[in-house]
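[Q] Does anyone have a clean structure-token version of this?
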Amino acid sequence: MKQYFSALWQENKKFMLILLTIVCFKSAIADLNSISGRSMQPTLLDGDKVWVNKLAYDFKLPFTGISLAEIADPERGDIVIIDSEVAGKRLVKRVIGLPGDTIYMRNNTLIVNGEVADYTIIGSEDGNITISEQLFEHSHRAMISGVLANRSTRNYGPAEVPAGQFFVLGDNRDNSADSRIYSFIPRDQIVGRSSSVVFSLDSEQNFKPRSDRFLAQLQ
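[A] Here you go.
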């Protein structure tokens, strides 16, 4: 048996080393993440495949959540991938509140540290209104429902973000389970940052490629 495994290793060691390198790369450096659902519309669509930079904030021991070194802190406006223990699943959301920030929402109007976000209507479709939300130096698109819906999450706080944690929201404000539901996100549950779509398949059109979204940069 020992000779068998020794021969197997000799014949396949290059392939196994390459495979191990790829697995370690996906675990600690970069990976792809599939977008499922509508919580990040209009920025991300169901069927998008996004690039995840796992070295954006920490260098972690492969196959673990142990941080060996902190590289940078998440910034307001970052799109982050989260392994949420409370939700029991992976989330993709946008960082809105940093440690020490006071978050306040009234009828979907966002107020951070007393600063009221500025809103501009971009357009509407299928009962949803697309807006531009600008807060401090960052702006991005978001979506709200223009029809009667579950609006219990339109009001929040005021609440202060604890040290080492972050307040995150989905861009589709009336259709997102985020910090308003799951509370603040500990830093060690943030897997990485996404800044681009790699490719996209439309599940409502027999998985037809959305060529206009290939390698699209995210704001």
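[Q] Thanks! Anything notable?
[A] The radius of gyration is 20 Å.
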